[in-house]
Amino acid sequence: MKKNLLLLLVLFALPFALQAETFNVKKYGARGNGKKLDSPAIQKAIDACHKAGGGTVLVPAGTYLSATIVLKDNVTLHLEKDALILGTTDYKAYDNLDPFTEGLGIDVGWALLVAVDAKNVALEGEGAIDGQGSALKERHIKTDTRPEGQRWGLRPFLLRWVRCEDIRVEGVTLKYAGAWTSHYFQCRNVNIHNVTIRSFGVAHNDGINIDGCQHVRISNCDIVSGDDALCFKTTSSKMGCDDIIVTDMKLKSNQAGIKMGTESMGGFENIKISNCHIYDTKNGGIKLFSVDGAHLRNVEISNITMDEVRTPMLFRLGARLSVFRKHEDTRQPIGVFENVVIRNVKAVAADKAQLTPPSGILITGIPGHYITNLTLEDIHIRLLGTGTPEDALSEVPEAIDKYPEVKTFGPKIPAYGVWARHVKGLKLKNVTFELKNPDARPEIICEDGDMQIYK
Fold this sequence. Notes:
455 residues, mainly beta, Pectate Lyase C-like, 30-stranded parallel sheet, two-stranded antiparallel sheet, 4 helices, elongated
């Protein structure tokens, strides 16, 4: 009986053992010397792994010069310690397997490592992927003489995951993308853990972009990015961001630490973000936007510390109403911004900010479309002060259909603490401000709205 049971266990385990086969890229011709393109050899290893039913593609220590690499079903790409996939500086060598238009109207989608319609895919290990963004740009602009705002979209993202299921990204370091560092579009069951991002030097170096994804878990990541560090987007109305939990993040950015929008056609719902440290951001700490028709609701952000952050919070419901996948989507009606809670935040605002003098929290809908049931609880922000009586008379533009940014509403805000407009059910619970210098502006202003203040 015992022998039969043992035989059954062995036979049951055999298929799983076969699936765990390892495919070393060097056996498929990769040199790892950083001189000749190794992406064809890496792709051969991935294809062989996929054909065999799945397993691990091993990248040993070395430098692997690469153009586009495509991951496939049931493949784990494992980067050993001191393994480096180095993106070629020839931007024409990359492929765009899922073109789309981003929030500024630029066609984008080229990528170094990409998976499309794949299931059970992973990137793991102690190695790194480096896109050589600055060197790629330097080479690019020698032959492409258009203005930078028109040409940057040809530069590749570092990672792209498109309509994939069961994704895991763990342990790796992602560096110096040509554009966005990582982009997850319409994916389900995404796990991102213990990832380090150091991506800056060229424009649009977002850290993690979650674009219309569901069932997402992100934890223990350390991000220093040239653009938004942790950003949620919906470039399609067909699938929103839903059931997302983020915790234990370090976020530094030349733009925002945590952002939802600006691309905001689909919803942002049932999202919880907690235990994050945001520091040295140049354009906002927490920024939540619905400007392209999104229903942004049931979002909770808690236990956040901020240091040297320009404009700690901005909340916007607007009517830009852009379309990003023009052959697949249509313009949406004005969206909804409701039932959002920001709790337990301690922030030191930067003295030098987009607003002069700095302000802490900006909240604005548009006429007839209100930000509803926003709760700010246990918030303390330290600010420079120095506002004058003239500053208190400043008028803030509606900018109904404009790109939503702090500077859109500046350069002066008539309140130093909370300025709110077109709001219903705004609740301020133990929201306090500390000033380094006197400020002649009111602490709180609410225009066209109702607000409750609890001490």
